[in-house]
Automatic annotation (TrEMBL):
This is ATP-dependent Clp protease proteolytic subunit. It comes from the Bacteria. The keyword Protease applies. GO terms for biological process: protein quality control for misfolded or incompletely synthesized proteins. Keywords: Cytoplasm, Hydrolase, Protease, Serine protease. Gene3D superfamilies: 2-enoyl-CoA Hydratase, Chain A, domain 1. InterPro entries: ClpP, ClpP/crotonase-like_dom_sf, ClpP/TepA. GO terms for cellular component: endopeptidase Clp complex. The keyword Chaperone does not apply. Pfam families: CLP_protease.
Length: 239
């Protein structure tokens, strides 16, 4: 039996006072530790949802890096975030797929890394029994597909059939979308480049070091203003 990785759902605050929620790993499921099922069971996820509901912040940033998992848990996390009074910003990283993309739709702002991939597909399930059981499973999967497509459609301002067709590609396995495609389809609002800010250096420092830059240099050089020069002169006088 495949062992499902532990769901990593943590809550903290950044320097600006916003709440930050990191969702990393498969959504829902269970892991048997020898005594009981724990970690990413539905009760464990609901406990985290209560913590999310108790967060007192004007803005909540939700970082998502997940291959997906159980639809019921994905829907529950989506609804908990969507109903929170704070402004929700969902940020997609890695290869985010399936139930995790449902959670991503809860954002008032939906962002995606340009390095990430985004997968939506037909719901999966298992059934055991007679032909009536199989028909019941087909009906259930159809309802789930329509619920998921409806969430995508409402956020994108499109018809559900548009997303059902996308989910149905590759025999229902869907296909991975890059950030440009995800934005085109209305699954995200914007893409971002995960990189550090460009470095700046004072031109006087370079001159003092005897370094001369070519006119077409791409290095971001910050010139010294007259106010900065006067301020430095005053500081030297005080010393």
């Amino acid at each position: 039996m495949k062992q499902i990785p532990r769901l990593k759902l943590s809550i903290n605050r950044n320097r600006k006072g916003n709440a930050v929620i990191d969702i990393d790993g498969e959504i829902g499921g269970a892991k048997y530790d020898g005594e009981e099922y724990s970690f990413n069971t539905t009760p464990a996820v609901k406990k985290k949802l209560r913590e999310i509901s108790d967060v007192d912040a004007g803005k909540i940033i939700v970082n998502i890096n997940s291959p997906g998992g159980f639809v019921n848990d994905g829907l529950a996390i989506h609804d908990a975030l969507a109903q929170h009074p704070a402004r929700i910003v969902t940020k997609v990283y890695g290869m985010t797929a399936s139930a995790a993309t449902i959670i991503a739709q809860a954002g008032d702002e939906r962002e995606m890394s340009r390095n990430a991939l985004y997968l939506i597909h037909r719901a999966w399930g298992m059934a055991l029994g007679n032909q009536n059981d199989m028909r019941d499973m087909i009906e259930t999967l159809d309802k789930i597909d329509n619920r998921i497509a409806g969430i995508y459609a409402r956020r994108a301002g499109r018809e559900s059939d548009y997303f059902l067709d996308l989910m149905n590609e590759n025999d229902g396995g869907g296909r991975f979308l890059d950030s440009i495609e995800a934005k085109e389809f209305g699954l995200i609002d914007s893409e971002f480049e995960p990189m550090k800010a460009a470095a700046s250096i004072n031109s006087n420092i370079l001159n003092a070091m005897g370094i001369t830059l070519p006119e077409d240099s791409s290095l971001n050089v910050t010139p010294v203003t007259e106010d900065q020069k006067r301020a430095r002169a005053i500081r030297k006088m005080k010393l």
